[in-house]
Specification:
Length: about 270
């Protein structure tokens, strides 16, 4: 199974319409792939907060239409990254996955919003539902950027049948070490493939880490990009997930629902 991660650069001098056309052309160029992935918020930039409201779209807006057509033309499964979705008065960081006939297979609204009471955390609403795409060879769970820091989300995706995780991101260069570490950790602890697709360039002056990466179920890095725009292509063996889980069956030893009991006064001391 061949997967291509398109680490597109977000250039502030390029219009959203122009970048949308360019992204669609890049997807069409990957017709030899089985799965193509774009990064988080590539139409506007993950840190371009002032553009969230002005460039927000309905679910079936211009980005949906362009990516649906590109998936159908290339005959690929396409994770079209994410865009700013407007639903009534609410904004969401929404990912779209299309089947090779251009039909929407699954959408996902990012659950964990970054910003610590600023930026995305206050401008966007949180998603509430886990999402697994029933790919015929490699069912994959959906997560977005900051979600990578929350392992319980990935446990939930494994329980829902995921054998891989596809994670578009707009991850900053200054925390690139965390990006690489967490991608491998999510692969190792869940014995699943991780396909993490970042962006190149800068979003509203925030330098992006790039370094899109594909990690196998044993935690080995199969391929890693640099910091500039490029397409990272790798061959996956879907059977390796079941083989890894059978040869080292750590998942069966999970003890769900562990919590620390509170003292009688309801407060932890120390």
């Amino acid at each position: 199974m061949r997967a291509s991660l398109i680490q597109i650069a977000v250039n502030p001098d390029e219009s959203v319409d122009a970048r949308r056309r360019r992204a669609a052309a890049l997807v069409r160029d990957e017709s030899a792939a089985d799965l193509v992935v774009l990064p988080e918020l590539w139409p506007v930039g993950a840190f371009a907060y002032e553009a969230f409201t002005t460039d927000a779209e309905p679910l079936r807006g211009p980005t949906y239409e362009a990516m649906s057509a590109a998936a159908a033309d290339a005959r690929v499964w396409l994770h079209a990254g994410s865009f700013v979705e407007r639903d009534g008065d609410a904004l969401y960081n929404t990912s779209l996955v299309f089947s090779p006939d251009g039909e929407l297979a699954r959408s996902y609204r990012k659950i964990h919003r970054f910003g610590f009471d600023q930026g995305e955390a206050v401008l966007m609403s949180a998603g509430r539902e886990l999402a697994v795409v029933p790919h015929p060879r490699l069912p994959f769970g959906l997560a977005t950027c900051y979600d990578l820091r929350f392992p319980e989300l990935f446990r939930g995706l494994v329980d829902a049948g995921a054998a891989a995780f596809v994670i578009p991101a707009g991850w900053p260069e200054r925390r690139r070490g965390h990006w690489s570490l967490l991608a491998r950790a999510r692969a190792v602890e869940n014995q699943a493939y991780v396909l993490a697709c970042g962006t190149a360039g800068a979003h509203a002056g925030v330098e992006q880490a790039g370094h899109s990466v594909v990690v196998d179920p044993w935690g080995e890095v199969l391929a890693e990009a640099g910091r500039t725009e490029e397409v990272l292509t790798v061959t996956l063996d879907p059977a390796k997930v079941a083989e890894t889980r059978a040869s080292f069956p750590a998942l069966k030893d999970r003890v769900p629902g562990l919590t620390a009991p509170l003292p009688a006064n309801g407060k932890l001391e120390g």
